[in-house]
Specification:
alpha/beta; four-stranded parallel β-sheet; three-stranded antiparallel β-sheet; 10 helices; disordered N terminus
Length: 227
């Protein structure tokens, strides 16, 4: 099975579901290929969804699961309103602009699209998610594949949480625009052994507060290994 990196970066874009289940199988194959028997797994957004499935299906291979920014509420509260948000986000990606006349134009587009993000986070996205072309810059992702992946944010992942046995940490941004503390605590109850850890920042903690996130993950990992 080929790796399916959500249509991002320089990797290929093979046909497939682009679901968390497919990615979890890919992660299992990666473990086997490089000789990893067991590890702490942490991921943000799609990475978190993959980790949730992996922890349930390949529970012998995971020592702990860190959900950076927290899980998507739509995967745990399958309401009509949440499903509508997911489908709208997928449609916006499908209709989004991916080619720009200059880096400045691409940055302005990102700023309008993500008004809550700090400039440093937007610059990071511009540096790593775009590539120079003869006519300007273009996004380094396949928007069709990304839109397909986004649609899976409406999948019900509660059944996987119930099957996981490893410790789980919901690493919620203290100023999160995606997940309230009350929601995080309610979702944590879906696992047998889960905690909510607030880290200063919003949703993309790996860009907003990498030091604080690293400390929280290191502390959680040390505890998970001891259990």
């Amino acid at each position: 099975m080929g790796a399916r990196p959500a249509g991002h970066g320089d990797s290929g874009r093979p046909d497939g579901e682009y679901s968390a289940e497919e990615y979890a199988d890919d992660l299992h194959l990666f473990f086997r290929q490089v000789g990893i028997d067991k590890a702490i797994v942490a991921g943000q957004s799609l990475g978190g969804r993959v980790g949730q499935v992996f922890a349930a299906v390949y529970h012998a291979e995971i020592q702990g699961l860190g959900l950076v920014g927290g899980p998507h509420t739509s995967n745990f509260f399958p309401t009509r309103e949440e499903a509508t948000k997911v489908l709208n986000a997928s449609h916006r990606m499908l209709e989004s602009q991916t080619e720009f006349a200059s880096r400045e134009a691409a940055f302005a587009y990102l700023r309008a699209l993500r008004p809550r993000d700090k400039e440093s986070a937007l610059r990071h996205r511009l540096e790593h998610n775009f590539i120079a072309t003869t006519g300007g810059v273009a996004a380094k992702y396949d928007k069709v594949r990304v839109a397909l992946g986004l649609a899976h944010m409406a999948d019900d992942l509660r059944k996987y949480a119930a099957r996981a046995t490893c410790p789980v940490a919901i690493l919620r941004g203290s100023a999160s625009s995606e997940l309230t503390l009350a929601q995080a605590k309610e979702i944590a109850g879906c696992w047998k052994n889960a905690v909510v850890i607030d880290v200063e920042g919003d949703y993309a903690l790996q860009m907003e507060n990498p030091t604080g996130l690293a400390r929280a993950l290191s502390s959680f990992a040390a505890q998970a290994v001891r259990e």
